[in-house]
Amino acid sequence: MATIAVIGAGAVGGYYGARLAQAGHDVRFLFRRDLAAVRERGLRVYSPLGDFHLEEVAVAASPEELGPADWVICSLKATALESARELVAPCVGPNTRASWRSGNGLGIEPVSQSGSGPGGSSAAWRSFASIGANPG
Description:
The protein has 136 residues and is an alpha/beta fold. It has helices at 11-22, 35-41, 63-66, 84-88, 109-112, and strands at residues 3-7, 26-30, 43-45, 52-54, 58-60, 71-74, 98-101, 122-123.
């Protein structure tokens, strides 16, 4: 299974990362505001595809704590995309095959096309509605 770093683990990044963790991947989440709550209570997903709860979640307060990953999911809000390169860089190592930029908001195309470093980059644009109701 792959090692996956999720940068921007809010409603969108949290959902995709949680689904990948549920499937058995080694998923590591970068949290800021919700770090303590997720450490204490885990990560809960409510979805038409099935609700579930990850009781133990690998979380970090800095991208350096996440370390290199096979894949990086960067799901920052449009207002935070300027910091994407510095947040993703510590997660890109010799085994990183791709960095997926999943911008969250409007006007993200120019920033997300700027590349991410030695691991390469691929973009994915999709429509997705989610609400981060409570921490974790």
